[in-house]
Amino acid sequence: MKNKFLAILGIIYAHKLISAVIALVVVAAITVGSLLAVNSNKPEPKPVVSSEEEVSSEEEVSSEEIVSSEIVLEEPAESSKPVASKPAPAPAPSQTITSGYKYNTNMNIENNIFMDSLVYTGYKLDYHRSLGKMWTYIPAASKRGMGILSNIGYDYDGGTSGYETNANGKPDIAFFEKGDLVCASYVTYVYFNYLPNVAGIDTSSLTRPNRSYSANDWYIAAKDWIAKGYSSAIPFTASKDSSGWIHYKSAANIPIGSVVFFKNYGSNADYASHVAVYAGYKNGYNWLYHVGNDNGPEMCAIERMWYGPDPQWPLMVVSTPSNIRFSAALEVTVKDADGKPMANVETSIGTTNASGVVLKEGLNYGNYNLTYTIPKGYYADKNSISVNLTTKNNSLNKVSVTLKKQQAVTPSKETESK
User: Fold this and answer.
1) How many CB atoms lie within 10 A of CB 329?
2) pLDDT range class, residue 50, cuts 50, 70, 90
3) Taking the CB of the first residue and of the last residue of the chain, which one, N or C, has fewer CB atoms within 10 A?
């Protein structure tokens, strides 16, 4: 009887234990379900937006737009690149520039010869300024709709070298509009087409790239500028933050017109995959003139070159060649009738040195009236001379002034008797 009672009691306890376990499982399931329900009602975390939004405050930029905002395309493979449809012309002879020519410096970010080479392609700079977005970063995808770009696009299939000229000997913009440009052929257009053929700046002393459409050939040519002492490589540091911005810091001021090279991000090879012309520093950006996508010639910034499906990384900055004058210089030599130099003669551009020479750089091209003070004991037919400052002789204009000695007056006998 006792054993039967214990067996019945065990069955009751087992039943209670199973019920308890089932209850715990149900409670756990309800708890997990509640937690999932609560979490499903929480908002999705917002994507990290880069500081591009800071410079595009008028528009809200999505994370998708940020990723694709700067598309730097690889240049076509060398094997598929056709030969330019027109041969590269010989360097144009220097031309005389009339008064009022504005290129007095290549260091003014708002007005310089390299900016004008962008405008010459059809880029609507005045309209860009009128929008109030000058020196404000604009996402690449937004530019075409703004109406500021030229009709030149990216050269996917080849056909333009950057050297092409029209019947007037000027850059053939209509041809570029049909065949488009790549980064390297744009820099070729600037240095070896626009500068000599429009601005009258003689760049024939500079080594040219073997292939005008190759960024790496430009890299090789620019290294030769350094080897010849025309340019220097400007040191810099660069790092990337989590949002993709390049933090770029140059060890020295970068002259406008310097040639900036990039390599494919992550590559350790000494090989340039992109090239651009330095436009100046303003509003926290190191600006560039370049061709990197369907926008054709445009303004970009070193800080944004990592964005896009083909991220680029700074490789080298080669300074604007110092052997090329981008403004006029006037050298005045003052001598006496015997050809001896005259020091300390005051002129409207300065005072002559011991060699009788005074040099003034950074002048506008055009017509000038040079004046000079005639020292005591000397005379001349006039105390001024007209000069026309041109691009000839690498923009170095020379003028010579001759002053004659006054003859000593010998008193006559009649005067002595008095």
Assistant:
1) 18
2) very low
3) N
